[in-house]
Amino acid sequence: MSADIEQCTAPMRTWWVYMVRAENGHLYTGISVDPQRRFAQHQRGKGARFFNRSPAAALVWRRECADHGDALRQEIAIKALTRKAKERLISQLDEPSSTAARD
């Protein structure tokens, strides 16, 4: 590479793992670079067949991740939790890395 050509790097995007509560009370876990936009898509019935049974009601939890791989690992770990453990995670609003959005 020539010394006068700078290396191009794509800006790093922040990835999030998030949970949405459906109208029937069930929890959906996913990842996105924009959880609020993704939640709006879920409300319109786009993106996840999960919401065919019951519409998306609320974005109840989200956490910033180091990168896409970290977000995927956290998504898998959260999906493996019991409902009770997921509800505990949602209730931990004081944790600095998590943010709850309640509408």
Describe what you observe in this structure.
It is a single chain. The chain is α+β, with helices and mostly antiparallel strands and 103 residues long. It has a single domain, classed as GIY-YIG endonuclease, CATH 3.40.1440. The protein is built from three helices and four strands, in the order ββαβααβ. The protein has helices at 35-43, 68-79, 83-91, and strands spanning 15-22, 27-32, 56-65, 98-99. Strands 2-1-3-4 form a four-stranded antiparallel beta sheet, with helices on both faces. It starts with 14 loop residues before the first strand and ends with a strand. The model is unreliable at 94-103 (pLDDT under 50).
Strands, total number: 4
CATH hierarchy: architecture: 3-Layer(aba) Sandwich
What general form does the structure show?
A: globular
Q: Can you identify the CATH class?
A: Alpha Beta
Lateral strand order in the biggest sheet: 2-1-3-4
Mean pLDDT: 86
Estimate the strand proportion. 25-35%
Write the layout of secondary structure elements.
Layout: E1 15-22, E2 27-32, H1 35-43, E3 56-65, H2 68-79, H3 83-91, E4 98-99
Antiparallel strand pairs: 1-2, 1-3, 3-4
Brief account:
The protein is α+β, with helices and mostly antiparallel strands and 103 residues long. The protein is 29% helix and 25% strand. It has a single domain (15-99), classed as GIY-YIG endonuclease (3-Layer(aba) Sandwich), CATH 3.40.1440.10.
